[in-house]
Design brief:
Strand content: 5-15%
Distance between the termini: 66 Å
Number of strands: 10
CATH superfamily of the largest domain: Spore Coat Polysaccharide Biosynthesis Protein SpsA, Chain A
Low-confidence stretches: none
Order of helices and strands: HEHEHEHEEHEEHEHHEEHHHH
CATH topology of the largest domain: Spore Coat Polysaccharide Biosynthesis Protein SpsA, Chain A
Largest sheet: 7 strands, mixed
Number of domains: 2
Mean pLDDT: 89
Length: 393
């Protein structure tokens, strides 16, 4: 091989394409991932007691349950022991009437006057039972802000509520706060666990980085809060009552704006959720979100797709470049440098995102997972179309 600066015009164009694709990948796709770590550090540094002269907004924690008495036994004591400067209550809303859930809540109400229970009627038809349950819980709530979670959630910090309420108390313009919920670490041991871990974190990174760029469009059912008045001003879930799901993406897409939404990523605000069958539930949730994703704006979600597309286009351009001028060190070196830049930024960016969101540590599988993620997203879109009867009512 030789080092020759005089190369054909076509080779120059192909080399320029390789460099441009590498820059697009690194600057447009990878750099926003580092913002997650910076924002988490910012939230932790901001985590100080509320100003004594400030008045903390009242809060209602609405817990959605599907006869999950064991989850409630784990969660409710943690919620009742929250260290929050303002008034708060816990409203458990169960899907249908359950004697076990009622007996458990009754056993706690004598000692905790801020604990309440409601349930959906057993005969409810032709509407989303979860949306009905949340609507009943929010109507029963008396706080200025409703903080939503589920019986599958695990809250380890007694400052969780204070952290989720901090943006509301510090800025009167904030009407919606999105938090994060992560599967319990180590419970998913089934085949494909690395793929699921990456896809879950990639999903979170997509909507979180969009929110940090002032384009919020979704949240997580286990950890989200909004002003009660905002819910009623939007007429609740009325625009999507014919869809079973969408309470934390379609609805959030309706009410979230750049100036009224905050992201909370402090250590104490992060919630875990029971993931002992995550290998099954993730696929179901991904298919549901692929369906509801048709009803929300797509612009903020395209950044992740661009990254994977850039890698595939770079591979094609790199192969064409080497084929066009196979004996030139300049050509091979340029291709190698751009490829190394893509690999290095992939490792650094995604490992930073995984660490920021308490995800599984990944290394050698990262490039392949990034490249193949669009195919998995396409699979879930196809799956959601076949499950039409499970998404519309």
């Amino acid at each position: 091989m030789t080092f020759n600066l005089h190369i054909p015009v076509l080779t120059y164009i192909l080399l320029g394409t390789c460099v441009a694709l590498a820059l697009i990948f690194c600057l447009y796709y990878i750099l926003p991932l580092f913002r997650l770590g910076r924002w988490r550090r910012h939230c932790n540094e901001e985590a100080a007691p509320l100003d004594p002269d400030a008045t903390a907004a009242s809060a209602s924690i609405v817990v959605y349950s599907r006869d999950d008495v064991h989850g409630l036994e784990r969660l409710i004591p943690e919620l009742l022991g929250q260290d929050y400067e303002g008034d708060y209550e816990v409203v458990v809303v169960n899907e249908g009437e359950s004697a076990e859930v009622r007996d458990y809540i009754d056993s706690l109400q004598m000692a905790h006057r801020n604990l309440y229970l409601t349930h959906t009627p057993d005969g409810a038809r032709n509407l989303s039972r979860k949306k009905l349950a949340l609507t009943l819980g929010i109507k029963a709530a008396r706080g200025e802000v409703v903080v939503l979670t589920t019986a599958t959630s695990i809250v380890k910090s007694n400052r969780w509520l204070a952290e989720m309420m901090r943006p509301f108390n510090n800025d009167a313009a904030i009407e919606l706060v999105t938090g994060v919920a992560i599967p319990v670490e180590g419970e998913d041991c089934a085949r494909g666990r690395r793929r699921r871990s990456f896809d879950f974190i990639a999903d979170c990174a997509t909507w979180l980085t969009a929110a940090l760029r002032h384009h919020p469009y979704r949240g997580m059912e286990q950890n989200i809060a909004y002003r009660r008045e905002l819910f009623f001003n939007n007429k609740g879930f009325s625009r999507s009552l014919n869809i079973q799901h969408g309470d934390d993406d379609i609805f959030v897409n309706e009410i979230a704006r750049a100036d009224n939404t905050a992201v909370q990523l402090s250590d104490e605000s992060i919630v875990r959720f029971d993931g002992d069958i995550f290998n099954i539930t993730y696929g179901e949730d991904a298919a549901r979100r692929a369906f509801t994703g048709r009803h929300i704006r797509r612009g903020a979600r395209r950044r992740m797709a661009v990254g994977s597309l850039a890698i595939w286009l770079w591979i094609i351009a790199a192969a064409a470049t080497v084929y066009a001028d196979p004996t030139n060190w300049l050509t091979a070196g340029t291709v190698a440098v751009t490829g190394l830049a893509i690999l290095t930024m992939t490792f650094l960016g995604w490992r930073s995102a995984m660490k920021s969101l308490n995800g599984r540590s990944l290394l050698l599988t990262l490039p392949w997972l990034v490249m193949t993620r669009p195919f998995r997203k396409f699979y879930y879109r196809l799956r959601s179309r076949k499950g039409h009867n499970l998404t519309y009512l």
